[in-house]
Amino acid sequence: MTMLKLFSAVTTSGVLAFGCVIPVAAQVIPDGTTDTTVDVDGTINNGDRAGGNLFHSFSEFSVPTGGRAFFDNAVDIVNIFSRVTGGNISNIDGILRANGTANLFLLNPAGIIFGENASLDIGGSFFGSTADSIIFPDGEFSALDADNPPVLTINAPIGLNFRENAGDIINRSGFGFQVQGGQSISLEAENISFEGGSVTAPGGDVTIAANKTIDLVNGNINTTTFDESNAGNVLIQAGLGIKLTRVC
Fold this sequence. Notes:
The protein is mostly beta strands. The protein has no helices and 28 strands. It has one domain (27-245): Single-stranded right-handed beta-helix, Pectin lyase-like (Pectate Lyase C-like), CATH 2.160.20.10. It is globular, with a radius of gyration of 17 Å. The N and C termini lie far apart (39 Å). Residues 5-22 have low confidence and may be disordered.
């Protein structure tokens, strides 16, 4: 089992480059272990709250092209933790949205694919991972132990636990995969591939971490602002290797 720390130290800064619609219903299904409900338009309500943390648990979580998954949280929520327990890959090709400045965590051990139309509409930071659990000082929020009630805690997370052969993350999203100024994006998985995808965090930090390999194929990672002195930082870390590819 491998543990990766969240909010890791960073090593590089700046730019790393390699080259009104009716919502479509999201394929988001609660698994019944939290008080989560989902409307037909993809609006996600309720969940289990502990202080500033809000917990959701899903058996399926995918957003088709033109669709959205809208976490309709209270504006004083700090962190939204969402796990996917059904064993199927999350295919995100629409909008992930949340209220206020909440940070959004998406955990699916089976894998996550961000399609060309995937985008973020959140006020906080985004964390996507194929780890099996999020670690807290007083317990863990596991996507592999859905038979037991999830640990609800008011504490901030301190890391991730990975089983062997965890799922991968593929990012094909264009410039819509962006957080607001000063916020961060973190993607952590077994393998990570940028297939023409990009992530943008103006003045914030970007973490791309894989237990095995990272393949940046015509990818783009951007943390600059209009004032380049306020550029954020980039950490790219892989256990077995990093491949940078430009396909012309």
